[in-house]
Design brief:
Blueprint (H helix, E strand, L loop, with lengths): L9 H46 L3 E5 L4 E6 L2 H7 L5 E7 L5 E8 L8 E4 L4 H18 L1
Antiparallel strand pairs: 1-2, 1-3, 3-4, 4-5
Helix pairs in contact: 1-3
């Protein structure tokens, strides 16, 4: 409620309320900046996994928990567009012979270097590249 006359004691309180609003806005801005940074770093790890798998000659499918949204593709743009639309995804890795080699399970929203939650042992040689990259990100930003 706004009063027409202000007691002398009201002025500092109103200034403090304004300061709190500024601090709140700054806190929100900092949180948004941190979240944007986390998302960018998370995406860079996902990109590294996808690029490494494509570079190794694999076909990739994306399963979003309900359906396969990308089928046997080597098109990084399509694969990346299908990933991160839900809280977790499975990247299905298929060999040149058309047989499933393994999978990479992504969980989003944690620390960026932890986005790869699990992967098949058969993919260890390729995942060494992505794991080394994630370790670099953790060392720099963790």
């Amino acid at each position: 409620m706004t009063r027409i006359g202000h007691a002398e004691g009201d002025r500092p309180r109103r200034q403090l309320e304004g300061s709190n609003m500024q601090v709140s806005t700054l806190t929100q801005t900092a949180a948004q900046t941190a979240n944007t940074k986390r998302l960018a770093l998370e995406l860079s790890v996902v990109r590294k996994v996808v690029a490494t798998m494509i570079g190794a000659g694999f076909l990739l499918s994306v399963h979003d928990g309900e359906e396969i949204t990308v089928h046997r593709s080597r098109t990084q743009r399509d694969i990346l567009a299908a990933l991160r639309t839900v809280d977790d995804d499975t990247l299905i890795v298929i060999g040149a012979d058309g047989k499933r080699v393994g999978r990479v399970y992504f969980v989003y929203g944690n620390e960026p270097w932890e986005v790869v939650n699990d992967y098949s042992e058969a993919l260890e040689p390729q995942m060494e590249v992505a794991n080394a990259y994630a370790d670099q990100i953790e060392a720099k930003h963790g």
